[in-house]
Amino acid sequence: RKEVEQDPGPFNVPEGATVAFNCTYSNSASQSFFWYRQDCRKEPKLLMSVYSSGNEDGRFTAQLNRASQYISLLIRDSKLSDSATYLCVVIGGTSYGKLTFGQGTILTVHP
Amino acid sequence: EAGVAQSPRYKIIEKRQSVAFWCNPISGHATLYWYQQILGQGPKLLIQFQNNGVVDDSQLPKDRFSAERLKGVDSTLKIQPAKLEDSAVYLCASSLGYGGETQYFGPGTRLLVL
Q1: How many CA atoms lie within 13 A of B88 on its CB side?
Q2: N or C: which end of chain B has fewer CB within 10 A?
Q3: Residue among B26, B25, B38 nearest B1 (CA)
Q4: A2 touches chain B (CB under 8 A)
């Protein structure tokens, strides 16, 4: 079983749609969770951290379910500019903060 | 503030040749990472440095890959000899502290092995 698993998609949605991605992780000792965004042929950039209580940043909402070991990202009112690959990132139970990336979920928002 | 710098941006070599990549992290960042990203996959950590010491190189193919971070600042990653399956983007990232912090990525080096 992979340490971090994501549905690779692709997800093709129209502008204005709501779309959700899930990510599961295998290490129950994982400490921190993030969503990164990667545009085509670009480097990954932090989108948002994921907190146990859930958190929201504008149109983006991230949630964590420790019992079921999954995190989610919800995008409301999708924009064309949201088209990218969304990477789920988990920091495992080590002292030095090793990040493990999922394979990414491709999102395409069309007019 | 200057970001993470990497060079070269692109490299094409033949199998069994050697290649080296360079990374200059954000000034003051203690931790430096090298990732390999194969097309269609997420980045895979190859090696993580804290200052000039290695804290994780468990996924580095040590028979052909080597990396160093002299003086705890910039770093080089070398492949010798290269194989076809080494074709990938090699990403360097840095973070301010020692764990769980935001990583800032460089633009990557695209390697094609023929």
Answers
A1: 22
A2: N
A3: B26
A4: no
- Report the chain A residue with the minimal C-alpha distance to residue B90: A43
A97: how many CB neighbours lie within 10 A of its CB?
22
* Chain-chain contact of A44 with B108 (C-beta, under 8 angstroms): no
Instruction: Show the tokens assigned to B53.
Output: 């010491």
Q: How confident is the model at residue A94 (pLDDT cuts 50, 70, 90)?
A: low
Q: Cβ contact (<8 Å) for A96 and B98?
A: yes
pLDDT at A92 over 90: no
DSSP code for B94: E
Residue A93 has pLDDT above 80, yes or no: no
Class of residue B88 by CB neighbours under 10 A (exposed 0-12, middle 13-18, buried 19+) = buried
Mutation for A interface: B101, B109, B110, most A CBs within 10 A: B101
Gyration radius (Cα) of chain B, Å = 13
Q: What is the CA angle B89-B48-B11, rounded to 5? A: 25
| Residue B4 · residue B106 · CB < 8 Å | yes
DSSP A22-87: EEEES-TT--EEEEEEE-TTS-EEEEEEE-TT-EEETTEEEEEETTTTEEEEEE-S--GGG-EEEE
| pLDDT tens-digit map of B28-85 | 999 999 999 999 999 999 999 998 899 999 999 999 999 999 888 999 999 999 999 9
Q: Which residue of B has its CA nearest to A101?
A: B42
